[in-house]
Amino acid sequence: MTKSEIDAEEFPSEEDLNTQKKSIKSEKKHSQTVKEDKPTDEQADSKKVDTAVVDKLLDKNQELEAQLKEAQDKYLRAEAEIQNIKKHNQQDQAALIKYDGQKLATAILPSLDNLQRALTAQEQNQDTSSQGIITGVEMVLKHLKQALAENNVVEIEAQDQKFDPTVHQAVQTVPADDQHPAETVVQVLQAGYKLKDRVIRPSMVVVAQ
Fold it and tell me: Which of 46, 71, 158, 167 could form a cystine bridge with 203, CB 3.0-4.6 A?
């Protein structure tokens, strides 16, 4: 074996040494990176604490959102209830204004009936000596009806009209004939009255059947 062969085998070249040096540096760097990336126990505990706090905050946020939603729902329900109450009150007030005077009109009607009966009785007696009384009663009756009409209280048409159960009250029936077909009012026993579109008292009538 020659000297040059011994030197080549026992002593590496400069290029080989540089390659080995780079390899050693690379291994050290990788080792340091792995060491740095690995968290310490203190860091791990800190992360656990942070996660627990975040979880608590999320739970609290969800709880607050649920409470807010419930409060909003209660508010909307209360607001709707208030609007319904206002609407009913407005309707009641409108009805009171519209049908104002109904109580007074109802109280007057019996007196109106008595005057009408007295007038009818005097006319049937044909007593000329009481003509002045008849005239006076007619005038009072006329003025009462006029006063009621000015306050939207009017007599319900019934005589010879088709029977209408919403405004007529049948208290007696008679057989129908040529002059009074079935379901026709034959006679009015007591006049009925309306206040605007509300029936104060239905007409008491005799109906053909």
Answer: 158
